[in-house]
Amino acid sequence: DKLDEDQIKRIKDVQRQMIVNFSKFNILNYWPGVTKILLRNRWKELFFLRKCQEDVFMPLIRARKMAKEERVNKSKEDMKDYEDEYVLSYVDTLLALELPEEKRKLTEEEMVSLCSEFLNAGTDTTSTALQWIMANLVKYPQTQEKLFMEIKGVVQDGEVSIKEEELQKMPYLKAVILEGLRRHPPAHFVLPHAVTEDVILGKYAVPKDATINFMVAEMGWDPKVWEDPMAFKPERFLESGGETFDITGSREIKMMPFGAGRRICPGYGLAMLHLEYFVANLIWKFEWKAVDGDDVDLSEKEEFTVVMKNPLQAQVCPRLK
Ligand code: HEM
């Protein structure tokens, strides 16, 4: 059932290749007819990587399909239901899916694309956000200290790791995460959207089917909405009189690191939980300091997400005796 280290490494390597080449391949979306001639070699590279992805994912998808068939047959033979004894995976949900309008199942190629999207969307985003947040906690030691003191007030001395329930008692932690997502949203744009009919939006006419997008990062940095927007100040999220900030934008949209509305990131709850859990534990267990003479460079670089141009380097000292 579980993947071995070698299989995990193969998935990681092929996904990493896709991510680091993402901007390079993105341009192929525009005028494919023209780029197929002008950027022939880039297309070749993309097809080669895609083939590698299929070689890695397809055997795993097929194995899952076979396991399901075997289970169904065994259930029939033994007149017993085995479904409860088995952990449902993302691939199982894809195998069961029937497209309602087209009345068909997904092809293996579509499943490979969805698995790839799910893996990248669910890991690269969160790890990028985590790195940006930790970089700010290294750059601003007073913020790190304030967070540590909050954690200390909630967690018993000597407790090895922080539990999920304890995170709910840490408003400053949540403010640090929100400020990280506002100041450094991993996605500076959402996925391409389209309007289903001609609309007038403000002063602009948006024709049916036109691709539209949102400038996620710029929204979070808008000086008309945020005071001193380029500064890292988690306190701004504590000033709302105890009301929790609505990250889904259902009341008002002041920032939208996960998008908003019907196509909002389906993993936002998990991502918030992961970020709170990792940041709290990393700060509870270690003191994070800048490497001597290093001022923590917050320059950006675009990959699949917008990452730190110079990845964080820090001195990490255990706090627990
Ligand atoms: C800090 C972490 C994350 C950030 C900043 C983030 C951000 C986003 C954004 C901006 C979108 C596009 C929304 C739109 O087009 O309107 C998106 C889509 C998506 N995200 Fe996340 N995400 C994060 C974590 C996750 C996690 C943990 C998962 C899964 C476990 C996930 C799965 C997805 C998927 C599958 C989509 C595509 C949804 C669709 O096509 O409608 N994301 N995410």
Structural commentary:
This protein is mainly α. 50% of the residues lie in helices and 9% in strands. It has helices spanning 5-20, 22-26, 32-38, 40-78, 90-96, 108-139, 141-154, 164-167, 171-183, 216-220, 268-285, and strands at residues 98-99, 104-105, 193-194, 199-201, 204-206, 211-212, 286-290, 300-302, 306-308, 314-318. It has a two-stranded antiparallel ribbon. The chain has a two-stranded antiparallel sheet with strand order 3-6. The mean pLDDT is 93. It binds protoporphyrin IX containing FE (HEM). The site of protoporphyrin IX containing FE has 20 residues, from α6 and α11. Keywords: Heme, Iron, Membrane, Metal-binding, Monooxygenase, Oxidoreductase, Signal, Transmembrane, Transmembrane helix. Belongs to the cytochrome P450 family.
